[in-house]
């Protein structure tokens, strides 16, 4: 990623990087949930 220059792809955008990190953290957090909770969350 080039700081200060134009974005070459969406992955260069700071907002995308922060959102991606947030999603990965949510996946990591919910991985420890019991499987029956997964089904409830999908309803």
Radius of gyration, rounded? 16 Å
Multimerization state: single chain
| C-alpha geometry | rod-shaped
**Amount of helix:** 55-70%
Strand content: under 5%
In whole angstroms, how far apart are the ends? 39 Å
Number of strands: 0
Global mean pLDDT: 83
What does the largest sheet look like?
A: none
Low-confidence stretches: none
Count up the helices. Answer: 2
Order of secondary-structure elements? HH
Content-based structural category: mainly alpha
Folded structure, characterized:
This protein has 43 residues and is mostly helical. The chain has a domain at 16-42. Helix content is 58%, strand content 0%. It is built from two helices and no strands. The radius of gyration is 16 Å and the shape is rod-shaped. The N and C termini lie far apart (39 Å).
Structure described in brief:
By secondary structure, the protein is an all-alpha fold. The protein has a domain at 16-42.
Sum up the structure in keywords:
43 residues, 58% helix, mainly alpha, 2 helices, single chain
